[in-house]
Amino acid sequence: MKTSDRTWSFVVLLPSVILLAIFVYGFIIQSGWFSLTDWGQDPVQALSAHPVLHFQGLANYRDLFTGFLDARFRQDLVSTIFFTVFFIAGCLILGLGMALLLDRNPRGEAVWRTIFLFPMSLSFIVTGTIWRWMLQPSGGLNVLPQAVGLPKGNFEWLSSGAAVLKFDWNRLPLLTAALVGLIMVYVAVRAQRDGARTRTLVAGICAVLLLGWALLIGPRLKLLPGVELHGFNLALVGIILAAVWQMSGYTMALYLAGLRGVPDELREAARVDGASEWGMYRSVIFPLLTPITLSATIILGHISLKIFDLVFAMAGPDNSATDVPALLMYVTSFRGNEFAKGAAIGMVLLILVAAVIIPYLVSQFRRAEA
Amino acid sequence: MKAPKLVTLSVAVTAAALLASAQAAGKLEIFSWWSGDEGPALEALIKLYGQKYPGVNVDNATVTGGAGTNAKAVLKTRMLGGDPPDSFQAHAGQELTGTWVVADRMEDLSSLYKSEGWASKFPKAVIDLITYKGGIYSVPVNVHRSNVMWYVPANLKKWGVTAPTNWTQFLTTCQKLKAQGLAAPLVVGENWTQQHLWESVALGTLGAQGWRDLWAGKIKFTDPRAVAVWTMFGKVMDCANKDASSLSWQQATDRLLAGQAAFNVMGDWAAGYMTTTKKLKPGTGFAWSASPSTSGSFMMLADSFGLPKGAKDRAEALNWLKVLGSKEGQDTFNPLKGSIAARTDSDVSKYNVYSQSAAKDWHSKQIVGSMFHGAVAPESFTSNFGTIVDAFVSSHDAKAAANAAQQLATKARIGM
């Protein structure tokens, strides 16, 4: 009985395993291979029926990170990091706020819940189109203040050329090493407090190496011949607004479920112990919500790293102030015919997404085993 | 006994007839990005084709999206996947030759040109654009002009200015208008309309021969003359609106019509928009002149159809191309599309006032190809050129832009 069950489940699962192997992992490997070739550099080969490809190692990646003509990619990378941080922060804060309000059982709670969740049922394309109308330079949100007699706003939501928090791309290795070094210091300190000696030692050595590198070698390293400034483009504010509008309902639903899962006894116990309302939230409820924050961050994080449709609908493919890597990948491959470079951008995106997802998966596996 | 036999017989006959008609009726798949305003023009062409070749089932595979941005991507995946449409739209020039012809994906149509006698019917400049190593590779359907400057005559009169005829004069006019409180005398839209403006500035600054030399690699982008293009472009952009990137070309035209701007440089599809959608009369509701310093030239772009190798319905596709290249076909299509015929013998009386003036210029001015619209530069160049324009608009560094453009040109193998 048991063996036949096993066989049966294996047979049922096999087709999807095969399909996944080909259409996900097979194509990832293929894209990885293309990203190491020169496909698209020679127009004769770019779209020929049987293109002849030459292996050229990491040249495409080198171009992307240090090439003169690929400044757009580097700005996109910086934009996407800023976008991710602000998008996740916005969704978490707004979602938590809405969940806390709903947790107080207001009248018509179901209606509110639906209203807050509704944007999530739209596709990013629809959201993008609606918000493009609302963020028109001479309409929408900018004329809203006039309704209450205030002067018209003139924020250039999607077209502002200004950027803040600018840094020179040449400083990137230094900044990264310094940042990771500081995290390692933190890990080491935590490990020491927990009494884990090997972990303290390893993290400490890593921190020393990284910080030392950042201080001694980093400043002398030059990726580009000139100064190249990248920062947080203010035009992204419009996109972030729309994205938060769309996804904060989702975090609200997650947080609300979490809040409802907190047993009343715990709250009462806290109150009996003399905790204020705020104190109860801070020391009892919020710590219980940490796993929810983590999963929401993971889900939102990978959405924001590969975001494409929202930006395409709101600002088009050629608005460099709001550009993101996924858009650049599409334009590079299917308009510029540079398939190898497009594949390289895709691989960079894959690595970014993997950096978010894999630690989460590992922790999930560990929890499942335990 | 008899009745069933009759039934069987009639069924058999009907089946045979159906089968025969199915065999006679061919199939034809036409791939284009003509939808919306341009849809009816394409439909008219398909109708004309149906009259000439009845029984052919025409599959109008249109992929929507301005200037073919989406269609071109879909086409590329189809071609790479070995499923070419029978005939597809591509801008005449490098967009076709630099992408598809060099990759050996198109059939040489020289024999069709010979049998239809087209060699003398199309201007040589157009045939040159679609010729690669002696073969002719597509049939141009229409011609648009890129270097046109639009304005509203009544508004200019109100402001007391006239349409400038060269870029220096344009800057003076711009100052005059700014002094009257018009913040942005020139309206531009999203990135590609800025590239569109750039090519008008470049043509005006370099002249027709200089423009040709630029794309032949005889003038480098780092040449002082080419750097001067950027300097002028910067000054012109100082006259333009700052929220450009969030406006489509139609919205930019709307601002012109609303009197929020005095001038707009856009291709002559803007005339179609203003006459058809906005119901304005050419000449009074809006007026035009060649963009400054380019009155001797006609910067052209043309839509054309070619025959990909491996097309499933080759015979039908060849007939389709014959219809496209015929005088009747071109005069059916273009008045509706708002463009002019690529053929020089078209019936001008069918066109509106604007198109008639464009047709006159088409026959008399120097013809040069548009960069952004795929005539003179390969796709790998135009695709990245927008980034350079964007960077220049925020930095105003002419030297850096010129250097970047030259590197891009080298990479795209311009002039090689």
From TrEMBL, chain A:
It comes from the Bacteria. It comes from Deinococcus sonorensis KR-87. It is a multi-pass membrane protein. GO terms for cellular component: plasma membrane. Residues 77-362 form the ABC transmembrane type-1 domain. This is Sugar ABC transporter permease. Keywords: Cell membrane, Membrane, Transmembrane, Transmembrane helix, Transport. SUPFAM superfamilies: MetI-like. It is found in: Cell membrane. Its main location: membrane. It holds the Pfam family BPD_transp_1. GO terms for biological process: transmembrane transport. The chain crosses the membrane at residues 7-29, 77-102, 114-134, 172-189, 201-219, 231-257, 284-305, 339-362. Belongs to the binding-protein-dependent transport system permease family.
TrEMBL record, chain B:
SUPFAM superfamilies: Periplasmic binding protein-like II (SSF53850). The keyword Transcription does not apply. It comes from Deinococcus sonorensis KR-87. Residues 1-24 form the signal peptide. The keyword Transmembrane does not apply. GO terms for molecular function: maltose binding. The lineage of its organism: Bacteria, Thermotogati, Deinococcota, Deinococci, Deinococcales. Pfam families: SBP_bac_1. Belongs to the bacterial solute-binding protein 1 family. One of its GO terms (biological process) is maltodextrin transmembrane transport. One of its GO terms (cellular component) is ATP-binding cassette (ABC) transporter complex, substrate-binding subunit-containing. This is ABC transporter substrate-binding protein. Keywords: Signal, Transport.
